[in-house]
TrEMBL record:
<feature type="binding site">
    <location>
        <begin position="92"/>
        <end position="100"/>
    </location>
    <ligand>
        <name>5-phospho-alpha-D-ribose 1-diphosphate</name>
    </ligand>
</feature>
<dbReference type="GO" id="GO:0000287">
    <property type="term" value="F:magnesium ion binding"/>
</dbReference>
<keyword id="KW-0328">Glycosyltransferase</keyword>
<protein>
    <recommendedName>
        <fullName>Xanthine-guanine phosphoribosyltransferase</fullName>
        <ecNumber>2.4.2.22</ecNumber>
    </recommendedName>
</protein>
<dbReference type="GO" id="GO:0032265">
    <property type="term" value="P:XMP salvage"/>
</dbReference>
<comment type="function">
    <text>Purine salvage pathway enzyme that catalyzes the transfer of the ribosyl-5-phosphate group from 5-phospho-alpha-D-ribose 1-diphosphate (PRPP) to the N9 position of the 6-oxopurines guanine and xanthine to form the corresponding ribonucleotides GMP (guanosine 5'-monophosphate) and XMP (xanthosine 5'-monophosphate), with the release of PPi. To a lesser extent, also acts on hypoxanthine.</text>
</comment>
<feature type="binding site">
    <location>
        <position position="139"/>
    </location>
    <ligand>
        <name>guanine</name>
    </ligand>
</feature>
<feature type="domain" description="Phosphoribosyltransferase">
    <location>
        <begin position="11"/>
        <end position="148"/>
    </location>
</feature>
<keyword id="KW-0660">Purine salvage</keyword>
<feature type="binding site">
    <location>
        <begin position="96"/>
        <end position="100"/>
    </location>
    <ligand>
        <name>GMP</name>
    </ligand>
</feature>
<dbReference type="GO" id="GO:0052657">
    <property type="term" value="F:guanine phosphoribosyltransferase activity"/>
</dbReference>
<dbReference type="GO" id="GO:0006166">
    <property type="term" value="P:purine ribonucleoside salvage"/>
</dbReference>
<feature type="binding site">
    <location>
        <position position="96"/>
    </location>
    <ligand>
        <name>xanthine</name>
    </ligand>
</feature>
<comment type="similarity">
    <text>Belongs to the purine/pyrimidine phosphoribosyltransferase family. XGPT subfamily.</text>
</comment>
<dbReference type="Pfam" id="PF00156">
    <property type="entry name" value="Pribosyltran"/>
</dbReference>
<comment type="subunit">
    <text>Homotetramer.</text>
</comment>
<feature type="binding site">
    <location>
        <position position="93"/>
    </location>
    <ligand>
        <name>Mg(2+)</name>
    </ligand>
</feature>
């Protein structure tokens, strides 16, 4: 990730709608044995998809890729994926460069990989996604956002 001049803020409602849309799409790809959520971003989408597809077996792969200043570093795997991947569904919030998805794919080669959002550099690594945004867009998830005031476009004319 270099400069990110564009932003794509996602509300809770939008995220829920997109996770349901992804669930509809995944209905044609299953049934699935279980869901592997890629932490942390995949946890909330995985919960919504698990509810829609009635999947009760949920596991995690715990990976740190980006630091708190949104810069990508070396991948750190804190917890591995399970050994069996046939019939499993991998869920993450997004694929950007594809580095995280590639690493998880190597651990789970036979699983179906789904994300809500995809950028061009990573879109071919996943099997299903809902919305594509440009590579120079930074996606903000609802758990990263807060309601706040914004100034109008024109201000101070009658001061
Ligand atoms: O395609 P890539 O360039 O590898 O980026 C995508 C990954 O980056 C984000 O995770 P992050 O490492 O920020 O951790 P988090 O899910 O805990 O927020 C996102 O949730 C994906 O997992
Ligand atoms: N929140 C968020 N995390 C990311 N990790 C890699 N790309 C992104 C992005 O666009 N938004
Ligand atoms: Mg993540």
């Amino acid at each position: 990730m270099s400069e990110q001049p564009k932003t794509f803020p996602v509300s809770w409602e939008q995220l829920h709608r997109d996770a349901k849309a992804l669930s509809w799409r995944l209905m044609n790809e299953g049934p699935f044995e279980g869901i592997l959520a890629v932490t942390r971003g995949g946890l909330v989408p995985a919960a919504i998809i698990a509810r829609e597809l009635d999947i009760r077996l949920i596991d995690t792969v715990c990976i740190v890729s980006y630091s708190s200043d949104n810069k990508q570093g070396e991948l750190k795997v804190l917890k591995d994926a399970p050994k069996e991947s046939k019939g499993w569904l991998i869920v993450d919030d997004l694929v950007d460069t594809g580095k995280t998805a590639r690493a998880v794919r190597e651990m789970m080669p036979d699983a179906h990989f789904a994300t809500l959002y995809a950028k061009p550099a990573g879109r071919d690594i996943v099997d299903s996604f809902i919305t594509e945004v440009s590579q120079d867009t930074w996606i903000y998830f609802p758990w990263d956002l807060a309601l706040q005031t914004v100034p109008p476009l024109v201000q101070g004319k009658y001061d």
